[in-house]
Amino acid sequence: MSALSNSNWDRRSVLRAAMGLAAAGGLAACGGNTGRSGGGSGDALVQYFHAYGEAGTEQAIKKYAKAYGEANVTTQWITSADFESKLFATLLTDNAPDLFEFHPQIQMVKSGQVADLTDIVEPVKDDFNPADITSHTVDGKIYGVRMIDDPQFFFYRPSLFEKAGVEVPQTLDELIETAAKLTTSKVKGLYLGNDLHAVISPMIWSAGADTLDEKNEIAYHTDGVIEGLKKMRKLFTSGDLLLDAPTDYWDPSALNQGLCAMQFCGMWAMPQFQQTLGDDLGVFPFPKTVDSGKQSVYNGGWSMFVNAKGKNVDAAKEFVKWLWIDQKKYQEEWATAFGFHIPPRTSIAESATKLKSGLPAEGVKLFNEFGHFDNIGWTQAMITALEDVFADSVRKDGDPEASLDKADKAINRELKKLFG
Asked: For 200-281, where are the E strands, in sequence order?
């Protein structure tokens, strides 16, 4: 699983996980040793991480934990595909972790699951990307510390573009035309992942719309988005889209193995792409869905949260502060030594030499120019509602307007629950 593999597809299982929580209440933590007792000074802490795909990541996280002198920190490195189901089920048991990585979602704040970390973030708040602070803030309090930012965009092979006589697409119409020209008997023009879910938000942003507006009201139901859904349907039925690839969009294999000429993926996979394709590699943002829109880049990422219902809240906060606030050397290594991620701390991002030139620098530029971050109010149920829109009107031949009307009802129910 690649580093940000879960940023989209794993979140889908949250709703199912939440629904199955009561049934799964007895699920124990993965692995036999929960780290609740044993050597080391001070408290025993357990942290949950999903299995990053890049070699060396598990060893690094365990190395950082071992270097901490104030508590005995055990890492559960969870290799199952649905990290959330494991996490959410275990949060209900006595084996719940003290801290865990996840994405900012308001229901965790409203249910009292995650601890307020304002006191540890506030002193260095100005050194964080402001968008990473906003996406973790509810009612002026900061929940979670961002560890990495992960822009997602298209990777392509310039040699194939040259051979087909095509330019980098600026609009969704051009992307569809380019995919057609790049498709041969052996190679499909484009890969967006097996379920297309990764491009739902970028398509909305590139239509000049958004998921929610500043008042936490629906902002995606626009003419531009309807137009975009029709275009996505055209692409889906064109025969130029790679479907059912052996690995999902987050893994670089589809482009690397020559199954497609363009692939939507994340910056985390850039070193693997470069290793295979060398200089025959370029990147571009999600193109404009409609002429009045603007290109976009989804900035996924992972954040560290403290379990507010755990037995060692203060000790867990101390560890988070030590590792993700104080240890800048480890933070830079985590962001750049295994895959390429953008450090959320401005001071670290500015000194990260690996991101200074070539394609990584281009990725950073796209991140800065076109980036959109998670909205903490955009919940799992809302994500699922728009996935259903794609299923109905892109994969099947449903009416986009009717599909969006159905999503509006589900999403407005959620918004009422959350914001009154």
From this structure: 260-266
